[in-house]
Specification:
It is built from 16 helices and 2 strands. Strand 1 and strand 2 form a beta hairpin. Helix 3 packs antiparallel against helix 5, helix 6 runs antiparallel to helix 12 and helix 9 packs parallel to helix 12. The longest helix is centred in the first third of the chain and has 30 residues. It has one domain. It has about 375 residues and is an all-alpha fold. It is globular and about 55 Å long. About 70% of the residues lie in helices and about 0% in strands.
Length: about 375
């Protein structure tokens, strides 16, 4: 918005307008804006939620006993302030003419709405079961399908329907119309993977921040022809603008962690985790680095696989592989402190993020 306004008011040759041409400058602005918004309004928002949600978020009765004792009464729907802050930061500092920016925001809000409905049912019934799994999946699939289709129609580019593999030079698969099915799988899978990871104070957010930083770097490089040619990766015009969105995500996530640090004063709920996961998956698809996302977001993948293995093995044998799934609860059952699990998962996330970025250079 700032760039568009100053451009019209001052003209293209103004030095002030020239500053706003730089994605890096506007990304910093988006980060600071979203971070400060949550810090300034966070306490007031939490106070409102405490009044509205007298009993807070319902806790799983089959979960760790410590959760029932220490997390009872904590309000949820904190994802609303994350979405609001990301939206404001992105709109204020982003280029309104960029379709990639708007589609990323749309996925965030659309998936956030699904998560909010889920959280509303949980609060209303005071039951940790919200929307039925099939209904949630159908709604997520519809939004993912529509956003990907619109993005491809408005902003087509060479290689849009290909899957690119890291490290292997010129290794790509053209899947044509089946790309939309692949897109739904990635976006919905990412959304639910982040949701599964959001089980301990700050656990999911640490990995979200690392993934957002990595894809801000990737988006910038992919959207810069000089860097893209040098690294021998696909150049996608306009992709660098997504850095503004992702920087805003990092700022909002850090701001939220100020209040979500143990003991958490608020949970982001499905409103936040489903929205963030879906938008990260969408950005990975836009940048043609969805395979790399499986590495960068490896913590999300591990959490999801642990649930799939647990459920599948139990159905086949009647026994469990882990003491409890997702796997972070397994370590809780083994006696690990919550802070220990969170910090170690953050370390894993940082290492995987660095490895993911390294694939850009290795060809």
């Amino acid at each position: 918005m700032f760039y568009s306004v100053f451009y019209k008011l001052l003209g293209a040759n103004s030095s002030l307008v020239n500053i706003f041409k730089y994605v890096t400058f506007r990304s910093i602005g988006a980060f600071i804006t979203s971070f400060l918004l949550i810090l300034i309004f966070g306490k007031r928002f939490i106070r409102i939620l405490r009044v509205q949600q007298k009993r807070g978020q319902p806790i799983r009765i089959d979960g760790p006993q410590s959760h029932i004792e220490t997390k009872k009464g904590t309000p949820t729907l904190g994802g609303l302030m994350i979405i609001f802050s990301v939206f404001i930061g992105s709109v204020f500092w982003g280029d309104w003419a960029n379709i990639n920016l708007w589609m990323s925001i749309t996925v965030l809000i659309g998936f956030g709405a699904i998560g909010a409905i889920d959280d509303y049912f949980k609060i209303k019934r005071y039951d940790y079961h919200g929307l039925r799994g099939k209904k949630k999946f159908i709604l997520q699939a519809i939004i993912a399908l529509l956003c990907c289709y619109i993005s491809m129609k408005i902003h087509p580019f060479s290689g849009a329907t290909k899957i690119f593999f890291p490290i292997l030079k010129n290794c790509q698969i053209e899947i044509g119309p089946f790309f939309l099915i692949w897109a739904v799988f990635v976006i919905v899978g990412s959304s639910n993977a982040v949701n599964l990871t959001d089980g301990l104070d700050g656990l999911a957010m640490g990995s979200v921040i690392m993934s957002s930083i990595c894809f801000a770097v990737i988006s910038y490089l992919v959207g810069n022809k000089i860097f893209a040619d040098y690294l021998q990766i696909l150049y996608i015009p306009g992709m660098s603008e997504v850095c503004v969105f992702l920087s805003s995500m990092v700022g909002a996530s850090l701001g939220f962690m100020w209040f979500n640090a143990p003991p958490a004063k608020i949970f982001m709920g499905d409103t936040g985790s489903v929205a963030i996961g879906g938008s990260l998956g969408f950005v990975a698809l836009l940048s043609k680095h969805e395979i790399v996302f499986a590495l960068i977001g490896g913590v999300f993948v591990i959490e999801t696989i642990s649930v799939v293995l647990q459920v599948g093995y139990y159905k086949l044998t009647g026994r469990r592989i882990f003491l409890m799934a997702p796997i972070h609860h397994h370590f809780e059952k083994k006696g690990w402190a919550e802070s220990t699990i969170v910090f170690r998962f953050w370390i894993v996330s940082i290492v995987l993020g660095i490895l993911g970025l390294a694939t850009l250079k290795v060809r």
